[in-house]
């Protein structure tokens, strides 16, 4: 296959017949806010996992003014379970900027969209092509994999030069008037046919022109950087209860799981947790034996969590906004930090 060969009509024909029915695709014309939300949710999360969160989000925040007016706690609580909470915080901040600077309308200019918090080349390309019909490429991991196989590209697809090469190939295939459909067709094709490890070449509408298949390399491509070993961090958690209330702590406003609530915990064992609660004014007693363990995997580390139960034996919370006693009946009223939401079920 020559680089200039136009095969996008074949892919679009397949997409028209087999494209997925997804809730964020049902508006005609497409709502740029809904496209934006769906693309942020889909980063590092599978479509089937996103569906219920998207529907719930749109019930709560149906438009830009509603989301812009919401509190961060409300936003994080609505996002809880999707992970990578910086995505929600960035989306919230960016939507507030759109409300303030663009009259609540997502800008059509690529430079302006890219200036929004949390919006990169892929998301900008998706919004511009799907919502506004602009001839912009939207290149993510699926697209890199598809093009590496179609064009038998054996360079590391995560490297800058290869990404640039593939982006140019994508751009060259965008059909006039159907840029959004083409980008969505690539998304579905990568998720349904040209899947990782074992592509479904027998069902592929592009099998006859796929250079990797012709070379017998369809299962060895694409080439990706081998991930570094992810370190495991032991974390001790204490669920401190007093008269039907739990002692909880808000994480710092920056960094991992920023501004979300958790049970007292630390990496220095039970003594470290006792010192932590003492710094907030609360003395605790902790059971000798843990009530359970929990493993939580982030992209860059693993928390191996050991959970204990404890109780207050003295003191009171100092006047600090980052500590509170939460009635157990109000367990859903705060955005829990990652695995701590699961710990509430264990403790209850």
Automatic annotation (TrEMBL):
Keyword 4Fe-4S: yes
An annotated GO BP: base-excision repair
Any one GO MF annotation of this record: purine-specific mismatch base pair DNA N-glycosylase activity
Cofactor comment text: Binds 1 [4Fe-4S] cluster.
Entry keyword annotation includes DNA repair: yes
InterPro entries: A/G_AdeGlyc_MutY (IPR005760), DNA_glycosylase (IPR011257), Endonuclease3_FeS-loop_motif (IPR003651), HhH-GPD_domain (IPR003265), HhH_base_excis_C (IPR023170), HhH_motif (IPR000445), MIG/MutY (IPR044298), MutY_C (IPR029119)
Key words of the record: 4Fe-4S, DNA damage, DNA repair, Glycosidase, Hydrolase, Iron, Iron-sulfur, Metal-binding
Domain HhH-GPD per the UniProt entry, residue ranges: 41-192
Enzymatic class: hydrolase
Catalysis performed (reactions): Hydrolyzes free adenine bases from 7,8-dihydro-8-oxoguanine:adenine mismatched double-stranded DNA, leaving an apurinic site
Swiss-Prot/TrEMBL cofactor(s): [4Fe-4S] cluster
EC nos: 3.2.2.31
Chain's role: Adenine glycosylase active on G-A mispairs. MutY also corrects error-prone DNA synthesis past GO lesions which are due to the oxidatively damaged form of guanine: 7,8-dihydro-8-oxoguanine (8-oxo-dGTP).
Family: Belongs to the Nth/MutY family.
PANTHER family attached to this UniProt entry: ADENINE DNA GLYCOSYLASE
Protein name (Swiss-Prot/TrEMBL): Adenine DNA glycosylase
UniProt source species: Megasphaera stantonii
Gene: mutY
